[in-house]
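Annotated sample (chain length 249).
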Amino acid sequence: ASFRSMAIVFISMVFFAAKSNAQFYKDMSVGLNAGAYIYLGDLTPNDFGSFKTIKPGFSLFVKKPINHFLAARVHISIASLKGDESLYSSNSDYRQQRNFSFSTPIKEFSGQLVWNILGRNYEAKGILPYVFSGAGVTLINVKKDYSRLNPAVFGETSEVYTGLVIDNAKGTPRSLLSVPVGIGAEYALSDRFSVNIETAYRFIFTDYLDGFSQSANPKLQDHYHSTSAGIIYKFGKKDKGIGCPVIIL
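Output written by the structure step:
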């Protein structure tokens, strides 16, 4: 329900801006993407993230070209993240005994610069690869679970137990500075519609995305990334130019 409400407000703002300034919105586009969001941190042995706990997510964006190469983009993502050590056993027996897990919804708001590698921001044909980066805020609400910890392995004198005391005292943040960095490609279907696919990695500068730090690996910061695809609608009409006059003989 919250995503639907945000989407309605978001699109309404775009149409309001469109009606208020025709020249400004002429090359503006709005996009809707869906994809997979993946946690990367202490609770997975995989260097590329927890692919066993992939969660779905959606994103909305408005993009406005600055010149042939650069465009500004306002981006909103609604998704969730999850990690669960009980899913890993091979060469990770201690994870089966520690058994930490967490989940959190994420709401990400960012401003980004998009670089069209081929310098074709005003064209609607072919494949248009791009890279992007920016800065924003990610809102989270972490629910962590350490109830399955095996006390016979990790007793009160263990680093895991003493680390838990520190982590619980510190708590978890509700908002994070996020820096998305990514790459993608857009393919025009017509003058107005195109499809895209992109992947983005988020630097968030914390080890408490999953709620655990001192009890896990305080030297390793948490992050998350996503891969998504969607459809883009471009506002404005294509210039038709001046037609040749008809000469009657």
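Annotation: The beta strands are 29-40, 55-65, 70-84, 101-116, 127-140, 143-145, 175-188, 193-206, 222-234.
Annotation: The chain has a mean pLDDT of 88.
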